[in-house]
Specification:
homotetramer, alpha+beta, 6-stranded antiparallel β-sheet, 6 strands, about 25% helix
Chain lengths: ~150, ~150, ~150, ~150
């Protein structure tokens, strides 16, 4: 396994969305640093903000009203440096693949220029009531595609 | 036990600090509403923001550098109405008592005018290394007193 | 406010249910002790075990199949001593009140003879789909009453 | 990316350790299934039990007394099927690599014969006070090697 290399924040696409967050006391473990699973929770919150503020697809309505789930079939993280209590961080989501009933994201976590963590997710869209895969809804597909293009420029 | 009555947001002191927050997917339980323990975690985050932004006492430095703990000896919550995914809420802390080595807070959680939850905390200041009670540090005591006064006007 | 006094484990009713648990790394905060909100999560897990193993009312079926919620309208905790990573603890639930559409519990947390925390909950039974209060279901009411009696002897 | 295939529980090494766990109400999200980050928390708890009960290396003393951290530099999960409230599951850790200052684990999560999730972790051993990498302690290295051998038979 080759370890990926941390990227400077300024090397990310200018037009990508940045979700700000702050490392909380409750995110940290007895080692005084962010507990690894808390990075996943923060990433999920950043994805919610990205949906609503950048993709203009209401993440919560998608689940509660439209009953479309965006569950992960794969989640992965590389940790480059520890996050500390009070750290102000930025989470930058990038779309890496758009399939029929799934899409892949990469999420960079930076404190200033330093990349602390990088997460990868494969999301499968599902009918929450029938509990089976469904194609990515049209509005979400269009928004993901437009975002991917915007970040490529 | 008498149940307290929910208060309108506009009835709270004008000069009190308001910490904004958003109810996350991960805060909610299978009933689709905020899991009760998540209210306590959100309240703790609001207290961190209040320390840093309003009291001007760095919550994280207090713990990590100055090694003063602000652990709760009592925590209590009344739940008036469920919080839902995506809700934008405001958390308003009020100081209700300042003692020698402890102080008490009340924290109101509102969505618009509606109070969703009210929390009460008794905090004891401790030496984190010696694990014993210590008097409230002078800067924190002064800041708590000034805030309490500001809210009374 | 008067602080309650910690009780020895051996002073609790012999016939009460004890839910064993272990303090996890992820339950602990940068102060190296159990984060206060984690006590509430552990208490909720203990109540699930108590329902299923002692009351013989399936907690999960109650929510998912029967669509009865057991949400808290009040939750409260006194913390007597810190819990540490790896601690083996016992959680002992007691029924303190059975009303029409709500009941109250007290939950003692002990490590050996020492009481670390004591929690109080007021639970309202609700119809999860209609989101309104409903009377305590008959089987649950009978089980709560029988348990309360068993603990009184 | 090729998706891995779920394995039957009975195909895992007979001599591997199994950590039992139960899916809690608080592990589940508004979709009624285990929130993905909760799998990581459960896996961490299983690793604690495995250390203490199978490797005979006290996980908590390792961190609190010996000040050796076992932080993850990589964490990864494939999700095959949703976990439901109340599910009784078994978590089976396997050692996949032992390096100088890091080791890799694979953790299978089964409900009966069905694999629900599979997690991979790369752990780096660190000096918690100096915050730098240190060789795997001798007792832990020996225990990991012996376990790996035991599972190969």
């Amino acid at each position: 396994m080759t370890r990926p290399t941390a990227l400077l924040a300024s090397s990310l696409p200018v037009h990508a969305f940045r979700a700000p967050a702050r490392v909380r006391f409750s995110d940290c473990d007895p080692a005084g640093i962010v507990f690894f699973a808390a990075w996943f929770v923060m990433a999920n919150a950043a994805i919610e903000d990205w949906f609503t503020e950048s993709l203009c697809v209401d993440f919560h309505a998608l689940h509660s009203t439209r009953r479309i789930g965006t569950g992960f079939v794969h989640a992965e993280a590389d940790f480059f440096a520890p996050g500390l209590m009070g750290d102000r961080i930025l989470l930058t989501p990038l779309v890496t693949r758009i399939g029929g009933a799934s899409y892949a994201l990469c999420l960079h976590v930076h404190r200033g220029e330093q990349e602390l963590a990088r997460l990868h997710f494969v999301t499968a869209t599902t009918d929450l009531d029938a509990r089976r895969a469904v194609p990515i809804p049209d509005d979400l597909r269009a928004a993901l595609g437009a975002y991917q293009e915007r970040c490529a420029t």
